[in-house]
Amino acid sequence: ATWTHPTNLQAVLEYMNLGDLRQFLARTTNYTFGWPSKLECALGTAEALFYLHSQDMIHRDLKSRNILLDAAKGTKLGDFGSSKEIVVGATMTAAVGTFRWMAPEMLVFKAYTSAVDIYSLGVVLTELSTHELPFANARDAQGRVLEDEALARRVIHNHLRPTCANGCPQWFQSLAGRCMAAEPLDRPAAPEVIYILKSNMRQSGKVSSGS
What region holds the Protein kinase domain (predicted)? Predict the structure, then answer.
């Protein structure tokens, strides 16, 4: 293909009629976006990560705004502008990702693996539970909202993590916590996350026998 002016260039993207997960959570409640649908969303995201990691790629910017929803097509992962091929011992060479979803090892420019995406998935799981931004209720000792720098320091040094809402299924809270483990090797890989989600969804009859 050829063109004469840059303004002729266009990008055609798949339309997802429910928008991104962050916007969807902001305009819904636990009643209008219930747990069966939330678990389907979590499963779709985990399956997208499994595929990406199987191709030796890391997303590096997984967050609710990069998860797209459609009433018919389900959940899809978008915005691969920060994605990178897996390289053993790789470190961040530029500021990528959004710090509220970033794994501690990325915040301190340490070597990282696909486990950084699993950490981000854990943060997204807490969003599915609360409908709020990660760390929305984080406060200092005086009750003041934590500034970004202070929040990042606590994530790195004090293992501060976003939490699930009261009433969230215990197994879901446990899975989110494991995904956000401080040590990358302590985080489950995408296949295990998928297995845990499907196992619990089957118990409540939310996954078909063919899934």
Answer: 1-201
